[in-house]
Amino acid sequence: MFKKLQKRWRAGLVTVVALSLGMGAVVYTQGASAATFPTATGTTKLTASKAVSGTFDGGLKRFVGSGALGGDSQDEGQDPLFTLADGATLKNVIIGSPAADGVHCLGSCTISNVWWENVGEDAATFKGGSSAKYTVTGGAAKGADDKVFQHNGGGTLTVSNFAVSDFGKLYRSCGNCKTQYKRSVVLKNVTATAPGGSLVGINSNFGDTATLSGITISGDSKKKIAICVTFKGNKTGAEPTKVATQTAATGGDGTNCKFSTSNITYK
């Protein structure tokens, strides 16, 4: 319990995010010592995963798990708060704690202006096929012991105008799923605030690619946050083997990790 409380007070984000909610521009200023998330307009408890097809606009209500969804641990196999059908959009939602396994995209999906106050198992998991297109735009996440975005299916995930703090990995292409794909991730205009482990983890042996631009890293004076880590993935469930780590100093390898030193800014 103390660890969870401690996580909520640790270093936050340094960014100003302007978002349109259909009611005019709303500006959220996030200071150097603590992230300022939008104020919830109410709280809804979910005892079972909420299925979304079409568009669900949460009106900036906070959604938390209860009963069977009452976990905020790293235990595998938890159910999500939201399950998005192919083509669905989830927007203007605050995901509180307990967050269970966040959001699952079963196909192509859009996640817009969604805020994770304290990531449970993962913030979002992407499960579509090889041609799926996933978009995460706006919003932020903090307090992820391990992963923020988990990519188990195929396709391409694009994350833009997003902020993350106090995290293990911002993005991970599944390293040991029974069915593997060539996966792609695009990060642009993303702010990451230490402590953090890595921005991207991908499987070079399956042809994964990561393209990064407009990345700002804050509070990491020793540059400990890895930019792009490549692994040798497998289909057996075994722990994947790390191949190489690309840093802001080295730049990307041009094949799997695609970024230059000018794409990374430290503050």
UniProtKB/TrEMBL annotation:
<comment type="similarity">
    <text>Belongs to the polysaccharide lyase 3 family.</text>
</comment>
<keyword id="KW-0732">Signal</keyword>
<keyword id="KW-0106">Calcium</keyword>
<dbReference type="Pfam" id="PF03211">
    <property type="entry name" value="Pectate_lyase"/>
</dbReference>
<keyword id="KW-0964">Secreted</keyword>
<keyword id="KW-0456">Lyase</keyword>
<dbReference type="GO" id="GO:0045490">
    <property type="term" value="P:pectin catabolic process"/>
</dbReference>
<dbReference type="InterPro" id="IPR011050">
    <property type="entry name" value="Pectin_lyase_fold/virulence"/>
</dbReference>
<dbReference type="InterPro" id="IPR004898">
    <property type="entry name" value="Pectate_lyase_PlyH/PlyE-like"/>
</dbReference>
<comment type="function">
    <text>Catalyzes the depolymerization of both polygalacturonate and pectins of methyl esterification degree from 22 to 89%, with an endo mode of action. In contrast to the majority of pectate lyases, displays high activity on highly methylated pectins.</text>
</comment>
<feature type="signal peptide">
    <location>
        <begin position="1"/>
        <end position="34"/>
    </location>
</feature>
<dbReference type="GO" id="GO:0005576">
    <property type="term" value="C:extracellular region"/>
</dbReference>
<protein>
    <recommendedName>
        <fullName>Pectate lyase</fullName>
        <ecNumber>4.2.2.2</ecNumber>
    </recommendedName>
</protein>
<dbReference type="InterPro" id="IPR012334">
    <property type="entry name" value="Pectin_lyas_fold"/>
</dbReference>
<dbReference type="GO" id="GO:0030570">
    <property type="term" value="F:pectate lyase activity"/>
</dbReference>
